[in-house]
User: Fold this.
Amino acid sequence: MEKTISLRDDSEARILFGKHDENLKKIEKGFGVSTSFRSGELKVTSENKDVLGGTEKLINEFLAVIRKGGYLSPRDIDYSIKNTDLSVPVSDIFLDKIEVSSKRAYVIPRSEGQKRYIDAIRQHDIVFCIGPAGTGKTYLAMAMAVNALRKNVVSRIILTRPAVEAGENLGFLPGDIYEKVNPYLRPLYDALYDMVEPDMIKDYLDRGVIEVAPLAYMRGRTLNDSFIIMDEAQNSTQEQMKMFLTRLGFDSKTVITGDITQSDLPGNKRSGLVHAGSLLEKIGGIKVCALKSKDVVRHELVQKIIEAYKRESEKKNEHTSKF
Assistant:
């Protein structure tokens, strides 16, 4: 059996096929099909009707992205082939452009989980995002914050994080408040500097348009017209989380991110992120998003490392439950 897909020109074919036909080879291997291209027509052959239909559908999704100016990396091709049961069309994921600045025109989700995450931020005032390292929790939250500031939806961005290693007592550290808290907010700064020009960031910090502060400094405040990001929230206590969530003012949005497998709290302390996620997830206006290893957008080895640790943890739990 054979399907024929018409391409507009050789340029479109080069983008779809990838360098040295890398993308096309991935499609052939992933679906077990054979392909040939001649005179603007891509022919896909398979003995399995369902496989052939699925391959044709995905290639047309890729073309929809390309024709609207989108970009597909080899990782995007791999992800799409391995996750053919996505409830969100591939084109909806890779064409969702979050405008940030002239330095980096836009940021794009790279998985179904990431797409659902940014949609949740658009639709809810408080969003919890729980997931392993490399899934884009912090980066996408920052992109949405910069986008909201750019569009004048909010007048400032507030970045905070529990400073567990210093016991929330930063007084003994040298420098002003920014210098004291800077080591704990480095991941947020890294994301920010990837999207916004350094001189603009300095101006924003000087004018208070972007504010950084340890979690303890949030007490007693009401945060209006702000986009607030709390990173590494698994290191907050229940009391701290309650205090933080009740700072939300009018016309503000809050995103809380964390990895519940990497808590630095003492063993007898339950994470405020875990507690709040289960307590508040059914309240309207609040959304809890869970990102998984398949949403990892770092080096492919990161995904394999996360899965290996997860398997080890499951084996330990299984062994413990027997006694």
About this structure: The two ends are 56 Å apart (CA to CA).
